[in-house]
Amino acid sequence: MTATRVLVLNSGSSSVKYQLLDMRDSSRLASGLVERIGEQSSRLKHTPLATGGGSREWTGPIADHDAALKAVAEELAKDGLGLDSPELAAIGHRVVHGGKHFTEPTVIDDAVLAEIERLIPVAPLHNPANLTGIRTATALRPDLPQVAVFDTAFHTTMPEAAARYAIDVETADAHRVRRYGFHGTSHAYVSRATAKLLGKAPEEVNVIVLHLGNGTSASAVEKGRCVDTSMGLTPLEGLVMGTRSGDIDPAVIFHLARVGEMSIDEIDTLLNKKSGLIGLCGDNDMREIRRRIDEGDERAKLAFDIYIHRLKKYIGAYYAVLGQVDAVAFTAGVGENAAPVREAAVAGLGSLGLAVDDELNAVRGDEPRLISPAGARVAVAVVPTDEELEIATQTYALVKR
Q1: Helix segments in 82-211, DSSP class H
Q2: 3-state DSSP call for residue 139?
Q3: Which of 22, 151, 283, 386 is labelled catalytic?
Q4: Phi/psi of residue 89, each to 5°?
Q5: Which of 38, 93, 39, 94 is nearest to 65 (CA)?
Q6: CB-based contacts of 35: which residues, under 8 Å, 6+ apart?
Q7: Which strand (E) or helix (H) includes residue 321?
Q8: Kindly report the CA angle at 287 between 283 and 289, in degrees rounded to 5?
Q9: Is 283 among the catalytic positions?
Q10: Residue ranges of the chain with pLDDT lower than 70?
């Protein structure tokens, strides 16, 4: 029997998201989420997609990631999809930070684990949780290939002119200070799917990808390769986000420390958790912000205007970086569902060949689609992202080799 299934794990600090896919046709067999790990009110929701049955959900104490993955294995086994199945080819793990070293999906061994651990200082919230998931899954199936797919890998093709900050080179190198970028699996998937939507190969098109969720990032993709992206050493840089500030004068930090007498930890919390949309208007849900705007809320309108202003700046900047743009693709929760954001983002950019058709933009759907007018010089597209499929595809391709 040929093993064609891949289990994708995304381990967070207190959660595990998972999907089981059959790579013969990229179909989903099951998906689920374990959250609030380590609490008495832990919750597991499991959906057996292959059988068409309804979701199963229960709450109760789940002590740690080991217990969480064992609970996931039990749920999969109930549907005949257990981790002991000979049809399981590999387990693919989302790992947020791979630094410069990891440029492609990698079979995990002790050396790989050590390098992921060495990168914890530049990804303190994510890499430890990713490591926990890897070690737990390896203990459950030590005979199975465990593959790391890195958020940063797609962006390692950036030229040094885009990746380096203009600070002392020796200091930067000593502390690994450079622009790494994130959401790489999404940018890779969406850029390729956009090319397919245009009926072309990825190597034939230049695409600006706008991943707009609670975390937001943009990338300039030239002939299938990332040449610039908005996030940097950490996911804090770039666009205005749900709770993160995005671009800011670094001297603001010195000012808050000296004049505001704030500690480094307090400033870190401010910029990562109390800024962006929630800092500007108290909401980080774009639906709620739009509702408030419709009711005449000026604070919500200002937050939206700042969000769009930054977004337009990046579209223009990446247009200049690429020189020629074939498509702008919106993806992730806001990008896929918020028509007013898409409309506002390209409004006034007609001289660049960018426009949306009002009727097409208003349509909702789960398939990639064009929302630009017929004959537009630059295609504007909505392309639902699929990071789990991207991780599974990369994992399966590696283990087949």
Answers
A1: 110-118, 127-140, 160-163, 169-174, 184-197
A2: helix
A3: 151
A4: -90, -35
A5: 38
A6: 14, 15, 42, 43
A7: helix 298-322
A8: 45
A9: no
A10: 1
Tokens 């960018």 locate to: 354
pLDDT in tens, 258-269: 999 999 999 999
Rounded to two decimals, the pTM is: 0.91
**Closest to 98 measured CA to CA, from 87, 86, 106, 90:** 106
Residue 358 φ/ψ, nearest 5 degrees: -55, -45
54 vs 335: CA distance, rounded Å: 29
Q: How far apart are CA 217 and CA 177, in angstroms?
A: 19
The whole-angstrom separation of Cα 96 and Cα 129 is: 10
User: Shortest CA distance to 396 belongs to which of 69, 139, 20?
Assistant: 20
Measured CA distances, 111 to 10, 98, 117, 169 (Å):
21, 13, 10, 27
Compute the distance between CA of residue 46 and CA of residue 361 in angstroms, rounded to an integer.
Answer: 33
Q: Classify burial at 50, counting beta carbons within 10 Å of its beta carbon; exposed 0-12, middle 13-18, buried 19 or more.
A: middle
- C-alpha to C-alpha distance for 193 and 182, rounded to whole angstroms: 19
**Cα 68 from Cα 236, distance rounded (Å):** 29
pLDDT value of position 99? 87
Residues 179, 202: Cα–Cα separation, whole Å: 24
